[in-house]
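Format notes (please read before filing issues)

Several people have asked whether sequences and structure tokens are stored in separate files. They are not. Every record keeps both together, in the order shown below: the sequence lines, then the token lines. Line labels are part of the format and must not be stripped during preprocessing.
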Amino acid sequence: MAENCSVDDCTKPISHRDLCGAHYQAAWRAGTLAPIPRNVRRKCPSSHRHAQSTTCYRQHRCRCDDCAARRSAENSAVSKAKAYGRYDSGMVDAAPISEHLRMLAEHGVGRRRIEALSGVSASTVTQLRTVSRKTGEPIARVKKSTAEAILAVTLQRANERSSCVNARGTVRRLQALIARGWSQQRLSRELGLSSDNMGGWFQQDAVTRAKASMVATIYERLWDALPPTDTPAQRAAAARSMNRARREGWVPPMAWDDIDTDPEPPAATDSTEIDHVAVTLAVRGEQVLLTPSERRACVRELHALRWSDVRVAEWLRCSERTVLRIREELNLPAFAQGELVMRSAA
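Then the structure lines:
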């Protein structure tokens, strides 16, 4: 049998199907490979691993004695294992592996980094986190050894020697503190930066490990602390920060289950929970975006000061009818004219 490629003027050794590796790949991509007759006894070059694997038998359709014996032994072993209920195909469901790879990709871990850590080829990683080029469907099964190697690649391992990390957790921490009432200027001072420099972080996909560590440290110290509201300037800054967060849909720290890995932020909607910082600022006269529950709390506090509905409505920047409705829902009595606290006495 000829040992060289069957293509004219090609002297490279045969890889399979009477073609060298380059010509075989070209013919496979072009779809010009002729079907192999089932009744033809083929034999691959002697350099192939005939008795060591089933590649020749399955893919190249080699039917030499060594390949046939290896295939027969494999079939006998499988039949025996099935009969005793001990058969293990060595394949597992690929869905959890694909999900894990997509999670790593969302956090900025590339396929080359995964290849270096797991030993799984980058092409296999790409196929597992996308769809099959042939069928257009996700790969359903994967080798157990491949699955174990990929699952062993955690975010911590992937970022151990990387100078940059995904900015998702850093940006979410800053947004959560702003939603709590901490102004961007105050956070910049805490980090030793200018406000303009920190403003660009909200549009970045990656930050340095040092920046992420600084923000995480500040976040652990401030996430459950209230911003200072002793002076009018401090109250105005806190009110602006909270208004900005509510317009942008940013949520406070307690709204996150895992601020680093949650795929989507929780919906920032009106709820029965009350932000007491927002209530305090509104009662002090700052213009704060209030939820219905927070507005009710403000009406209750201002009513306790014996303010009229008109004055409460002006103070909270809402209609007198809204204040009347809230007061009636809370069963708060109306004061007589002589019981009201006048503006000059407030």
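For reference, the curators noted about this record: The chain has four domains: 35-83, 91-158, 165-269, 290-345. The mean pLDDT is 79.
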